[in-house]
Amino acid sequence: MKKILLAAVLFIATSATIQAQLLKLGVKAGVNFASQPGDSSLNGVAFDKDGITSYHVGVVAEVKLLEKFAIQPELLYSTQGATYKFADAQEDFKNELAYLSIPVMAKIYMTKSLSLEVGPQASFLLSQKNDVRFDDANTFDFALNAGLGLKLTESIFLQGRYSLGLTDASPNADVRNSVVQISAGFMF
């Protein structure tokens, strides 16, 4: 009986150790350099656009499937948008959209610490600070992401990523979200 109990304890301990190596959870935060490329007129009124600097923060998981391949789903609060300058206006107008973003990245490890990351991202609009009067931003945004990840230690990592929006940010304007993200994070 003692041998069976000892074998069960060893099996559970080994399973827990293997699972800890296959699944890691963490947090990340960073800066967004966002813009909205596309049409530069709204109802026949021309304008210039500039990007905005904003932020993202959230949780991340890494599921190691092979020695050099992992899947990294994330849940992020991310702000994006642009600043608009209309020719007849004296001031700039800012369009800032806050999203709950869910990227699912495939991570290909080129070395033990450097990874190539690619994958889709679905984003759901949470709020809109809108000085431009785009009355109704689309509530769903779909994007493709690509970037690099660097593990500084087993727990601390850096990421750089480009996100290219594939859907219009508003039905009233032919603009899409485009974001460069630089992140730092910690895996537990």
UniProtKB/TrEMBL annotation:
InterPro entries: Beta-barrel_OMP_2, OMP/PagP_B-barrel
Domain of life: Bacteria
Signal peptide limits: 1-20
Keywords attached to this entry: Signal
Domain Outer membrane protein beta-barrel: 19-168
Keyword Signal assigned: yes
Protein's name according to its UniProt entry: Outer membrane protein beta-barrel domain-containing protein
Species of provenance: Flavobacterium frigidimaris
